[in-house]
Each structure stands twice: as C-alpha cells, then as structure tokens.
Amino acid sequence: MLPETESMTLELVETVRSLVRNAATAMGPRPLASPSRAGGAPADAKVREIADELSGVARLTQPTWRRVGRGRLLAPPRSTPTPAAPPTVTRRLDAASQWTWSPETDPMRAPPGRRHFRFCLALEEASRPLPARLIATADNAFRALVNGRTVGKEATFLELVAMDVLARLRPRTNLVEIVATNGGDGSNLAGLNATLEFSYPDGRRRVVSTDSS
Fold this sequence. Notes:
Layout: H1 10-21, E1 25-27, H2 40-55, E2 64-68, E3 71-75, E4 113-123, E5 132-139, E6 141-146, E7 149-154, E8 161-164, E9 172-182, E10 191-199, E11 205-209
Parallel strand pairs: 1-3
Antiparallel strand pairs: 2-3, 4-9, 5-8, 5-10, 6-7, 6-9, 10-11
C-alpha cells in the first residue's frame, strides 16, 4: 500500500517501480511531485514519468489493475493537483467604529425605511493611497457608493462586507455614501456600522468610522 499522498520522493518512486517489476503488488494514489520540491523541477518530472509508467497515461474513471513486469499495480483515476485556496480577505471594523442610525430615532425601535449616510473624503492630490477599503454591515441591509458608483451591498447584518474602493477614489474631494435599510413591518432594531481605511505610499494610515452621532 502506497502512502495516501500525491507527493513522493524520487528515490521512493524508483523503489516502488523496482519492487513491482520483481513480482510485488502495489496500490495507492498516483504521485504528482516530490515533497517540498525536493530535487526541483527535474525530480518532479521524473516522478511523474515513473508514475505514468506504473499507472499508465490513460484517463481512468475507476481503479484498474495493471501488469508491470512480473508484478501488478492497482492504478487509481488520474488526479490533478488541488488548486490553492484564494487568499483570505480580513474583514474587521476599526475598534473605534460604533453602530449608528439617527439622533432623532431610538435605534431599538426604528421605523422601517431608508437612511442616507454621507461623508466627504479629501485626499492629497499628489499622494494616491495604496490599499483603500470600506468595511460595513447594516441591520437590515445596505448599498455603498463612492462618487456615485456602487462598490458593494449586503442584505443581512450577519455578514461584514469588505469592498475595495481604490479604483473609485480621485484626487481631492470624494463623496462616500451608504444607503442603509431597516426592514420589517413595524418598528424594530436598526443600525449601520462602517469603517473606511486607506494608507499612503509613505506609510501614513487613515481610518474613518461611524460613531454614535
């Protein structure tokens, strides 16, 4: 029984081939590369070459017994490397960010409807920020816009949404707007919580967050 892994050293693959040729029986997954890139690309290529010799090059749909020399090997369906997972985007509001709704309304008993939150952001004309993200959530839903263009939306307060807004920013004045919606048939809990963060090439960082006002 071969190891339950798709990586195998060249020395081990050569040993398996020798044993099978000399009347041994083997079974297990087809190796695709050397572990930790041991031996570099040439070793990976040789591992795959020997794997093809033992398991065959046909695209199998089910395990198949193959005769190799005086032995035999149970060849599994040919697999492909598992694709790398996409990078995780950090979704975290600033520590100073607070839930807000309306100074005239008790957020615990807010009537259904929409509220518009607007903020004018002034950027230095000669220093374009590098990363620029708007992170938000609302009870019950929201749509975010930068300079009149939608950059993201969500229909549940159970999720934080991280939006890349760099492409929508321009030198000097920018209008950031969030349209938050409180759903339901009667008065209920409502709120918006959002953080806009960006950094300049020289390392300076700026954060703007909602507050209780």
